[in-house]
Design a protein that fits this description.
Helices cover 44% and strands 20% of the residues. α2 runs parallel beside α3, α6 crosses α7 and α6 packs across α8.
Length: 243
């Protein structure tokens, strides 16, 4: 064991699952603290220094979604959910609550380890990238990725966490077309099986909030491909190409 090993918090009330996951994670080189209730997990997360949280959704005291929202309010720590709730609406609800990845029970321990490593790797890469590009200006749109603030011509936009992450991703790649699959992977950290309109829905939310502060049509739809953020209104192209 070394201090460089990732330090994880596992919140899981099933003793058998908790024991198995703990053994597998330690064998893979992680250090792990384990709690059996949502309240105990939140208290531990507030006091400890962790690289990621593994969270079961079915807990005896607090619903896991509420725990996830509370964790997200504390910090941007990566959260991987473990649950038997596997339908698409339930997965979307979990991710929108603040989770970064989602693993449905029953699962293979090797997949859990692989997903955690990928999540930590992606988080580290995003952190380095964000530090290099802390403030993004797209025309008169100002995105501060460290303060989590967005404004247009000095007027602040009140965005949810997911809306902010989507706008930040578009701003980091301004003038570049990003496909829906690319946005799903980079913003939600998850690839949905089959069809999902979650990206289109959130693009709609962003457009409404930009319009409310007088911003032109900065988010352009490229039919059959995806979206891009432009520094200036594309003279009606966004509206003409919107699906």
């Amino acid at each position: 064991m070394t201090q460089a090993e990732p330090h994880l918090l596992l919140i899981e009330d099933d003793p058998a699952v908790s024991r198995l996951v703990g053994i597998e994670l330690r064998h893979a080189g992680f250090t792990v603290d384990q709690k059996e209730t949502g309240r105990a997990g939140l208290a531990e997360a507030a006091q400890g220094s962790y690289d990621a949280v593994i969270l079961d959704l079915t807990l005896p005291d607090i619903d896991g979604l509420e725990v996830c929202r509370a964790l997200r309010a504390l910090s941007d720590i990566p959260i991987l959910m473990l649950t038997a709730r596997g339908s698409l609406p339930e997965r979307v609800e979990g991710l929108d609550a603040g989770a970064d990845d989602y693993l449905v029970k029953p699962f293979a321990p090797a997949e859990l380890v692989a997903r955690l490593r990928a999540l930590l790797r992606r988080t580290n890469q995003q952190g380095e990238h964000e530090r290099a590009q802390a403030v993004l200006d797209v025309g008169e749109l100002h995105v501060d990725t460290l303060r989590w603030e967005v404004s247009f011509q000095g007027q602040p936009l009140n965005l949810t966490r997911r809306e902010f992450e989507l706008l930040r991703c578009l701003a980091l790649n301004q003038e570049t077309v990003l496909t829906r699959d690319m946005l799903l992977e980079r913003v939600w950290g998850f690839h949905y099986g089959g069809q999902s309109n979650i990206v289109d829905v959130y693009i709609g939310y962003l457009r409404q909030k930009l319009t409310a502060v007088g911003a032109p049509k900065l988010i352009e739809t490229v039919r059959g491909v995806g979206y891009r953020l432009r520094a200036q209104d594309s003279q009606g192209a966004s509206e003409a190409q919107a699906e």
